[in-house]
């Protein structure tokens, strides 16, 4: 039977080579081929079916996710997949499970903080999954405030042991993924006490990491350990496939050599030694690594929501504004729909490119750290923290907007959007609350501004070198067309970020106690950080356009996306641009007018731009976002696939409806 492509006319409108754009989106022909292979491996394997997931109760759901993880592991071994291939396989299975934390945090924690000897011992066991680990940092009472962690690790020189203890209820480890039911091991963060002295309490970092066995061979917890799951989380299915756990220690003894010893050591005699050439910030290194991974992945999440909303918008017709009777307008042709949808489409591409750049930055930092060069760590910390915060917040808001863009059908689980929202929303909290992370960026920016004159700003803050120009030269835009020039756009974002940073730094200087100033101005400081991070995203998109990009019309289509992203932000934050005096109201309104022109240029390419994400229908798991656009018959069928429709008489009907119909309520 011939397949009908309901989006064919839309696809025919494309003004660029979609196959070439797929390569740009994937990063390289090799990446495209790799992702395509893994996505189809998952899509064509019945073990990875996921449409029934939201109907399952927690225990079934969890068992189902363990089955999928075991199947994935079997595929990795049977097909001899590389670590990179296995990572994409897990990604397309699209179900948070314990291996995410094992590979994403436990192993990197050992790699970053273990001594050579410890790495030799634990990494092969971990990579072969002979042990399964998690990352236990957060406690019930302290998440963002890492310095407040209460779990203690007291050295007992007589027995050459550490005694790990949870002295209060609030010191219970709380949230670690994979901890509740599965992990055999944990990297646990605790305060170190040697010879009755807390180590590091006077410095910045007062906790140390230890690797632990949690269970005995029959998987009952070791004596002194209480472990469990934190309970049901938001959304059906969604993150409930993960066993986020709780953990308490009652004077649990572990050998001294289970303290991760790259940053500091405790000797057999109980002497505490800190490695001179390794900064203590390294203990935060795993978080830098995972924040980078989140930024690398987040564009895929946003692109998925945008793909669904764009395809449905290009199919569904509503009345025109002049006639409420004739259903002739495609939703995508409403200007108001475009002004909500197209900036999200542009954001997906913008986040992809900034994610690529961040990966490059992180790879460079990692190599430097291995060679004990820590000079770029502050920049890496600020960039990973800020971009994690900016992109996850925008993505989660974007998914919610896509749900609304699909009208009522977006609210159906079969649209794929509610579960995507539920599974993504904790990204604003885990790996650092987004506001807390933005405050870290603000600290970095304010420090850079304060040091102007005796320390050269580098990397993402190098615009601060041109402070004088940025503070005094205002925008030169005179026509709408003037706005679509890369260097002009970047300069506007630089000027806004620099002016906001300088104003805040001056306000901070008026406080006698800097910490009090920082606290009182924290809302403004978050805005400074947002301006700095948006500048990074815009400038990395503009830099991408300066590269050689093959394929008919590809570069032109990307230029439109870049300017949509940037001018949408100018419009959204025009208050910042106006208050700082960089723009006049006329220039701001020219930016908005130009934005409307850009939407009309983007419109014919919209479907092709989401096709270039190369998402399979399995990955999208959305009736309204199907590739073939055959929505309505499938939407109808999906309603009958719900077990709730198995019978016309639901449980409780005879008991609770009959008495009302028969007016026999008194018998209840
Ligand atoms: C939308 C869909 C997405 C898709 C998705 C993909 C899947 C991807 C799976 C993920 C799966 C989830 C897994 C969740 C796993 C957890 O959530 S693990 C727990 C994560 N917890 C956190 O992130 C806690 C957040 N809190 C913190 O990081 C710290 O406490 C804070 C906020 C940095 C403050 O710490 P502090 O010690 O009070 O530090 P502070 O005095 O501010 O700074 C001290 C110095 O250290 C520096 N520093 C601070 N942090 C660092 C750092 N990390 N590195 C280097 N230097 C640092 C500061 O810059 C400062 O430097 P100087 O100015 O002195 O030079
Ligand atoms: C799904 C999920 C998975 C997780 N996985 C793990 C894991 O594997 N391992 C692990 O160790 N942890 C994990 N966590 C815990 C996570 O890292 C913490 O929830 C996170 O760091 C935030 O800490 P908190 O929950 O204590 O929030 P809080 O710090 O209590 O924040 C609550 C509110 O207070 C505000 N706030 C807090 N501090 C400040 C401040 N200094 N200035 C201004 N505002 C502030 C925040 O902005 C926020 O609005 C996970 C959490 C979730 C939801």
UniProtKB/TrEMBL annotation:
Gene Ontology MF: a single term: fatty acid binding
Residue span, Acyl-coenzyme A oxidase N-terminal domain: 17-132
Residues in Acyl-CoA oxidase C-alpha1 domain copies: 284-445
UniProt-annotated location(s): Peroxisome
Keywords annotated in UniProt: FAD, Fatty acid metabolism, Flavoprotein, Lipid metabolism, Oxidoreductase, Peroxisome
Pfam family, one: Acyl-CoA_ox_N
Statement: the UniProt record of this protein carries the keyword Lipid metabolism: yes
Annotated GO biological process: fatty acid beta-oxidation using acyl-CoA oxidase; lipid homeostasis; long-chain fatty acid metabolic process
Stretches assigned to the Acyl-CoA oxidase C-terminal domain: 488-662
Domain of life, per lineage: Eukaryota
GO cellular component terms attached to this protein's record: peroxisome
Residues annotated as binding FAD: 138, 177
PANTHER family: ELECTRON TRANSPORT OXIDOREDUCTASE, PEROXISOMAL ACYL-COENZYME A OXIDASE 1
Family per similarity comment: Belongs to the acyl-CoA oxidase family.
Designated name of the protein: Acyl-coenzyme A oxidase
Source organism: Centaurea solstitialis
Record lineage: Eukaryota, Viridiplantae, Streptophyta, Embryophyta, Tracheophyta
């Amino acid at each position: 039977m011939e397949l009908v492509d309901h989006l064919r006319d839309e696809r025919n409108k494309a003004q660029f080579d979609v196959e070439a754009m797929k390569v740009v989106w994937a990063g390289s022909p090799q990446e495209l081929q790799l992702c395509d292979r893994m996505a189809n491996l998952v899509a064509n394997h019945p073990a990875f079916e996921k449409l029934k997931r939201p109907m399952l109760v927690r225990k079934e759901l969890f068992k189902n996710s363990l089955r999928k993880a075991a199947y994935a592991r079997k595929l990795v071994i049977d097909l001899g997949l590389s670590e990179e291939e296995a990572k994409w396989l897990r990604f397309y299975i699209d179900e948070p499970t314990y291996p995410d934390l094992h590979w994403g945090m436990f192993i990197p924690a050992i790699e970053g903080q273990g001594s050579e000897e410890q790495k030799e011992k634990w990494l092969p066991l971990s990579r072969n999954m002979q042990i399964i680990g998690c990352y236990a940092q957060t406690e019930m009472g302290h998440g963002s405030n890492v310095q407040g962690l209460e779990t203690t690790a007291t050295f007992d020189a007589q027995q050459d042991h550490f005694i790990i203890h949870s002295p209060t209820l609030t010191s219970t480890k709380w949230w670690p993924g994979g901890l509740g039911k599965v992990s055999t091991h944990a990297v646990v963060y605790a305060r170190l006490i040697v010879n009755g002295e807390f180590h590091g309490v006077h410095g910045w970092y007062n906790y140390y990491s230890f690797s632990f066995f949690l269970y005995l061979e029959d998987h009952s917890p070791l004596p002194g350990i209480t472990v469990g799951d934190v309970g049901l989380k938001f959304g059906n299915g969604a993150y409930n496939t993960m066993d986020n756990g709780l953990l308490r220690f009652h004077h649990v003894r572990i050998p001294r050599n289970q303290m991760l010893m790259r940053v500091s050591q405790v000797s057999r005699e109980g002497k505490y030694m800190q490695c001179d050439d390794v900064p203590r910030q390294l203990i935060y290194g795993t978080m830098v690594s995972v924040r980078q991974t989140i930024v690398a992945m987040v564009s895929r999440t946003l692109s998925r929501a945008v793909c669904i909303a764009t395809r449905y918008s290009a199919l569904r017709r509503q009345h025109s504004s002049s006639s409420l009777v004739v259903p002739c307008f495609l939703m995508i042709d409403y200007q108001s729909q475009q002004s909500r949808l197209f900036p999200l489409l542009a954001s997906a591409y913008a986040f992809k490119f900034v994610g690529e750049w961040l990966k490059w930055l992180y790879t460079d930092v990692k190599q430097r750290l291995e060679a004990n060069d820590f000079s770029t760590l502050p920049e890496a910390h600020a960039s990973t923290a800020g971009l994690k915060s900016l992109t996850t917040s925008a993505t989660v808001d974007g998914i919610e907007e896509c749900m609304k863009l699909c009208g009522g059908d977006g609210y159906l689980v079969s649209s794929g959007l509610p579960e995507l929202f539920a599974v993504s929303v904790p990204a604003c909290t885990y790996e650092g609350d987004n506001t807390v992370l933005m405050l870290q960026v603000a600290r970095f920016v304010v420090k850079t501004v304060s040091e102007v004159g005796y320390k050269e700003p580098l990397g993402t803050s190098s615009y601060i070198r041109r402070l004088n120009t940025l503070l005094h030269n205002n925008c030169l835009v005179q026509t709408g067309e003037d706005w679509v020039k890369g260097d002009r756009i970047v300069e506007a974002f630089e000027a806004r970020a620099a002016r906001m940073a300088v104003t805040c730094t001056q306000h901070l200087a008026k406080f006698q106690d800097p910490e009090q100033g920082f606290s009182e101005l924290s809302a403004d400081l978050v805005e400074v950080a947002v301006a700095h991070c948006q500048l990074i995203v815009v400038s990395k998109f503009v830099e991408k356009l300066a590269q050689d990009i093959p394929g008919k019309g590809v570069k032109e289509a990307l230029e439109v996306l870049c300017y949509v992203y940037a001018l949408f932000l100018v419009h959204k934050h025009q208050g910042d641009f106006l208050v700082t005096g960089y723009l006049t109201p006329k220039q701001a309104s020219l930016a908005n007018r130009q934005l409307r022109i850009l939407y009309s240029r983007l419109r014919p390419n919209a479907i092709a731009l989401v096709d270039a994400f190369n998402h399979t229908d399995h990955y999208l798991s959305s009736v309204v976002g199907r590739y073939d656009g055959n929505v309505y018959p499938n939407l109808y069928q999906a309603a009958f696939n719900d077990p709730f429709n198995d019978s016309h008489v639901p449980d409780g009907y005879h008991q609770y409806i009959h008495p009302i119909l028969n007016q026999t309520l008194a018998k209840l």
